[in-house]
Protein 1
Amino acid sequence: MTISDNASIEDLAVPKGSASDGASPRPHWMTRQRLYLYSGALLLVYILTPGVKILRDSWGHPFSFGNNARDYIAFWSASHLALHGHAAHAYSTKVLGALEKTVLPDLKGTLPWLYPPTFLLFVYPAALLPFEPSAWLFFGLTLVAFVVAINAIVPGRISTLLALAFPGVALSALTGQNGLLTAAMMGLGLALLPRRPVWAGVSLGLLCIKPHLAVLIPLALICSRSWRTLVVTGSIAFVLSAISTGLFGVETLAAFLRSMGEIQSVVTSDNKSLLRIPTFFALARQMSIPAAGAYALQAVSACVAVASVVYVWSRPAAHELRAATLVCATLAFSPYLYDYDLTWYGLVIAWYARFGLAHGFRRYEREGLILLGFAPLMGLVVVPHVHFQFLPILTLLTLAVLVTRVRTERHGVKGGNSVAFAKGIPR
């Protein structure tokens, strides 16, 4: 049994009963009215904050979204070079930096282009527009995609409001980054998987634009024997790679492969960036542990992530818990992760809320979802002050909660008390 397609997150305050231990039948303090109130208040803060900044710092000057969402300059500049037939130069720090400074003269240093040619294919038309409107359009389109993905998981009007108020959206606006885009691809792919396996493969295959976020997808599909989705996912990745290589040239692919060393240098040498890298590698380096020890700690986290996916996806489990586990495990796997990638926490929240609506929440689980919702902003507003990168610990704790819930539900099935397990995914 799974949640009805017509079910809404508006029912969050009074979940259906569950046979799982600890599920509370009493109404929760998080009522529908409070969901509207709190999410509306967050949206108001998002709207008023730029206004206050303009009044304080830029009186008489137009507000520039692009000047604040500066990471997007790397996307726009890479597109500009590709449109002018110099795609391989996007991986040249010298060339890219010079172009970035023509648009943002006060930019300190260079924001490198560290993505594969498949991502360059996605942002190829970005520089057809000037930088400012291009930045607005990129944020707007990726925000719409994210909201659609959340509504595909948990339908309902308030889902749209909660998605817009999600702090990960604010972080994407502040950084001009791609977290909303990748979250939308993952979210839609997993939402389509039970009933539209081919289209699910299309969406999941698009994540080849950031391969380190797609590593565990084939493992999950193999464990669940979702062969059609696996074939389509691989085919989409192959086709996009072939198109990007044909369009931009083999030299662009070679330039990307050479830039991998630069990526490693950013992760291992830039101590300032560690505050925004929510991985156990960054946590270890922040504590002055040598790189070898940091990689070892990250390897342990990756092994836990792999084991979790195998455990949850290889045997019967509710699709909601499978999806949330895969998303969370992905965040625990890669050593190269930035705080804007924690927009994926929104998917974990949506999938677990969907499960809770159908089968009930345990005590403090809803409070945990609220904490997880604010986590994407903690890398900017909390970690720098406490000087401790605690976000990977939060990710692993969340993963433990998910695996434990799956284990409990499986034991309930053996005892004939649980209805939390969905029908098999089409193969």
Protein 2
Amino acid sequence: MPFGQDGDAYASLLMNQGSGLKRSPSQKEFQSQARRDAERHLALEMDKLLDTCPEESRPAIGKQFEGYKQLFAQFLEEAGTAAAVDWDDILPPPADAVIPYNQLPNYDPALAREYLDKLVVIKLNGGLGTSMGCQGPKSVISVRNELTFLDLTVRQIEHLNKTYGCDVPLVLMNSFNTDEDTSKVLRKYGNINIKIHTFQQSRYPRINKESLLPIAKTAVVNGDNIENWYPPGHGDIYESFSNSGLLDTFIKQGKEYLFLANIDNQGATVDLRILTLLMNEKNREMVMEVTDKTRADVKGGTLIQYHDKLRLLEIAQVPKWHVDDFKSVSKFKIFNTNNLWIKLDAIKRVVENKSLSMEIIVNNKTLDNGLNVIQLERAVGAAMQNFDNPLGVNVPRSRFLPVKKTQDLLLIMSNLYLLKSGTLGMSPLRQFPSTPIIKLGTHFDKVRDFLKRFASIPNLLELDHLTVSGDVTFGKGVVLKGTVIIIANHGERIDIPPGAILENKIVSGNLRILDH
């Protein structure tokens, strides 16, 4: 029977493994044969898709498709296991595997230029701004003084090069969703003293959850079929960076390390103390910046010791009955900021040797037409186990300042932060280093709606906690202190008047200011 016809049964079989029942030799043989069939049928479909590519793009797309076939084979091998790790084998990282930032060596200004000339900065630029109601790449959302994430990043690198007389290039890893728009935006930086490079991460096909076959019928992407494809997470950077040719180019130029971070993390700037550590200890092939976990970070990946290796544990790998343990702030005290420092020749080694081992994250999605699909993804930090002498550095919270929602945007637009040379720093007028916890309701989800609800951004210097729910607007010059909770029930509206000072207040009901 052709695989496409019995695909439902096979997919069901895959998903129902790991139930604890012992399988007979005949079951194991059936599953092994089913895996081989699935790989063969997937390969045939991928070859058909490749045939639809324009001749000039076929070699590059072919490399990506080969990468997907390997990923799919790994998925089949792992499918149905109860979890990617044995919980009983998890140990805390050794004391010397994660060191506090304040124990790092101070950098020598006389060596700063030499060290910086060995560095490449890569920012992950594959995400769209759709979750915040914006069109195009997330990196072009205005975040401060009409400057975008990308503007701030370029200013940071430009300032670094100017201050130390060095040549640190900026590299953007785009996705097929962001590449064209980003290329247009980059034209405005033509006269800036900074070398900017881009490369595209892979474009992989979404597969039908039942048949485990690609839903795409052509490899040519347009507006009608774009949802048939996806960028496979930032773990794809190793192969994509190598395939782009940039990895070899930088190694030939004498570059030794890359600093990698999400472009929306406004705390992820080049740190000379971490760079100095790497230059002093050349045997370190990866450094992961971690920071202390709070209750807002319970889903973040953490470092563990597992089978004598330091590695990243993500919540997707945790057995369901241990998720609460994973979220425990007392048991797992740190989480991954996704700020990574990696040795370039080590990346070249693991890619060329095909020794890169990373866990797969299976992302189930339902398309607008109701079709259930699977995306196979990997996290960049999961490669830690492949590198020699990896290290965690417990950095200050200030190095983790991501913008995922408009409530994060409110923080960095406020007077809590000062902007200097593209870098945001906590205002010295803030008397304690922690940032306020802010929760904004659905009325504030989209950037456009968010901005309309503030005549000016409130003073947050003394704020601890803010919760806003419902139809709420803020006048000019509002000051928020302590814990402030504002709740407008359905059908009601609250207008916080200009100049209002709210300190440890709960505001509810209907408060509306009308012009007269």
